[in-house]
Write a structure and sequence with these properties.
eight-stranded antiparallel β-barrel; mainly beta
């Protein structure tokens, strides 16, 4: 009789734990919100900037490319099941540099949606769509010339590989985006304030903005 009661007690305990786990899974939200930051590299060179040291000697320089450099924003992940989820992001993608006599900057806003297949508990792979809104490149060479180039909104595929870090509530992403920008307009202000708008017909139509990057996503 004593063994029978013990067996019944263990059975009841296991049943209670299983019910609790099922209840927790059932009430767990399929949504996970996140913030992210990443760096990228790639695309055509748009401008260069040179530096000088205190003695006026060459101290190197930097290039700004159409696929550079910093990408920050927020996102939300919706989980369908263990195998599939979709990640939507809103971001600000930019690069900027300056020297004593020059400032250069490229900016654009990013919207994207990426469905993911979860290979296992750690890795997931996704192919989705990214949209770059209002890409702009500005070059200000102090007291000589300034220019502002606007590009059409652009869309491209995004290829993404994610790795989950459970104890950090986060995941790392390696991504590649094959993208082109098409020039919409370019305005130039020369010395003494003379302004001119270059006709689109004489501008290079396409700029390679393809890039590869790595991002860190923190989920909450």
């Amino acid at each position: 009789m004593k063994y029978t009661l013990s067996a019944l007690s263990l059975a009841a305990l296991f049943s209670f734990n299983a019910t609790a786990e099922q209840s927790e899974q059932a009430t767990q939200s399929p949504f996970k919100f996140s913030v992210f930051a990443g760096i990228t590299d790639g695309g055509d060179k748009l401008a260069s900037i040179s530096y000088e040291d205190d003695k006026g000697k060459d101290a190197g320089g930097e290039n700004i490319k159409a696929g550079d450099f910093l990408n920050i924003g927020a996102g939300v992940e919706y989980t369908f099941n263990k195998a599939w989820s979709v990640q939507s992001n809103v971001g600000y993608f930019f690069d900027t540099d300056s020297a004593d006599n020059a400032d250069i900057e490229i900016t654009r806003y990013v919207l994207e949606a990426v469905p993911y297949y979860h290979i296992n508990e750690k890795f997931k792979f996704g192919i989705g769509l990214t949209l770059h809104l209002n890409p702009e490149f500005e070059f200000d060479y102090t007291n000589i010339v300034t220019s502002k180039t606007e590009y059409d909104n652009a869309a491209a595929a995004v290829f993404s590989l994610g790795y989950k870090v459970e104890h950090m509530n986060s995941w790392f992403e390696l991504r590649y985006v094959p993208m082109d920008y098409t020039i919409k307009s370019r305005k130039v202000t020369q010395l003494l304030g003379q302004r001119m708008s270059l006709p689109v017909e004489i501008l290079d139509k396409d700029v390679d903005a393809s890039h590869i990057g790595i991002s860190w996503h923190y989920q909450f």
